[in-house]
Write a structure and sequence with these properties.
- The structure is a single chain.
- This protein has seven helices and 15 strands.
- It is α/β, with parallel strands linked by helices.
- It folds into two domains: 119 residues, 3-Layer(aba) Sandwich (Rossmann fold); 109 residues, LytTr DNA-binding domain (OB fold (Dihydrolipoamide Acetyltransferase, E2P)), CATH 2.40.50.
- The strands form four sheets. A five-stranded parallel β-sheet has the order 2-1-3-4-5.
- The relative contact order is 0.09.
Length: 236
């Protein structure tokens, strides 16, 4: 059963969304809000998996609300406006559903949510859609992850055997929740590294065991924002 909370400033929109959710198997609406401030006061204590947030609201919008929600709770955005899609994806978002909402589109969003919730509960492997179909990847085989240069929504994963797999439509925030935090760390906006591959760490750079041409080791820049976390994980 997926438990969800709804936030929308329009009461009619809430009623309609509740009816849609209640008509979807294994989905339960545990509470609904039309006030973002009240929602934020209560959300940490509510037992739920998904927050369905409207983006366009007076005072504080859905994007601002999402940034204040605990990472353990996944987000589905609803809006009549398409221009928020890129910004929404940078948050802990499962899906972005355009209004007027149709049941089959909402079902698709919940399917993605279910997949993500199941994936985050398994710390020894990732199960996700990739360039070769739905794939199970054991986390102990992963040594390096970077944002795809072809599509920034995708992530390239390098395995110990040198093979490369592309995770489709997955942001770093959700990906990091799937990985054992003691074994991986994000080092800048576009890269995650397995701690076991690091051989040298300077003030703003790491040298890894990963060979780029059979002779030279891969060197990566460490962003200022990520430096403290990396030092803590390395025991520095």
């Amino acid at each position: 059963m997926i438990k969800c909370v709804i936030l929308d400033d329009e009461l009619l929109a809430i009623s309609y969304l509740k009816l849609l959710c209640e008509d979807i198997e294994n989905v339960e609406v545990v509470k609904a809000f039309n006030d973002p401030t009240q929602f934020l006061k209560e959300i940490e204590t509510i037992d739920c998996d998904i927050c369905i947030l409207d983006i366009e609201m007076p005072g504080i919008n859905g994007l601002q609300v999402a940034a204040l929600i605990p990472n353990s709770k996944k987000i589905i955005f609803t809006t009549a406006y398409k221009e928020y899609a890129a910004e929404a994806f940078d948050l802990n978002v499962v899906d972005y559903v355009r209004k007027p909402i149709k049941k089959d589109r909402l079902v698709q969003a919940f399917e993605k949510a279910k997949e993500l919730i199941q994936a985050t509960s398994k710390k020894d492997f990732i199960e996700w859609n990739t360039n070769i179909g739905k794939t199970i990847i054991f986390t102990e085989q992963i040594i390096y992850i970077k944002t795809s240069e072809i599509d920034s929504r995708d992530k390239d994963i390098l395995l110990k055997d040198g093979s490369l797999i592309v995770l489709k439509n997955l942001n770093f925030k959700n990906l990091l929740e799937m990985l054992p935090s003691k074994d991986f760390t994000q080092i800048n906006k576009k890269e995650i590294i397995a701690l076991s591959t690091i051989t040298i760490f300077t003030s703003n750079e790491i040298v890894t065991k990963i060979s780029i041409d059979g002779e030279h080791s891969l060197k990566l820049q460490v962003g200022e924002t990520y430096k403290l976390s990396l030092m803590e994980k390395l025991g520095k």
